[in-house]
Amino acid sequence: MSLKDSPLPMVSFIGSSGSGKTTLLEKLIPELTGRGLKVGTIKHHIHDFDMDRKGKDSWRHKQAGASISMISSPNRIGMVMDVDHDYNPYELAPLFCNIDIVLSEGYKYKDVPKIEVYRPETHKDILLKDDKNLVALVSDVPVDLDLPRFLTRDIKELADFLIDYFELIPAAPALNR
């Protein structure tokens, strides 16, 4: 699946370790949800991980050989699933229900729209300056690229950009926000 085939808007935030990707998303998510959008996130990790706690029932189910183990409560659902390859974000899209946009952290080499978070203290040069999918940059230093650039504090403007770029239609904002 490609950028044009996906019915679910996705953008991946790319940057060196310590560049501020997670901090930026922690500010951007409430800005978008405050505008009535439902936001999903994906954290791409190139190493193995385990979110189940050893000894808990769902962990024991996986250890017993279940391919998928799910835990469900009135407030949350969590799933651990074995896979045979590193899924790209579009392959994960069907797992997102009732979401307006997915923000991912990672997927530097995948064919998805990307926003690079750049700090010269963490990396000498822009990582994706030649990537055709780079749609914007978040940096507090001037950069010579013909792309929209947002300062790390420009959260409202970045949200406006994403809403315009993906032609999102936010619901009416929640009262008292």
Describe the structure.
It is a single chain. This protein is α/β, with parallel strands linked by helices and 177 residues long. The protein has two domains: 10-46 and 86-165, Rossmann fold (3-Layer(aba) Sandwich), CATH 3.40.50.300; 52-85, no CATH class. 20% of the residues lie in helices and 20% in strands. The chain contains four helices and eight strands; from the N terminus they run E-H-E-H-E-E-H-E-E-E-E-H. It has helices at residues 21-33, 57-63, 89-92, 155-165; strands at residues 10-14, 39-43, 68-72, 77-81, 101-105, 114-117, 134-138, 149-150. It has a six-stranded parallel beta sheet with strand order 2-5-1-6-7-8. A two-stranded antiparallel ribbon has the order 3-4.
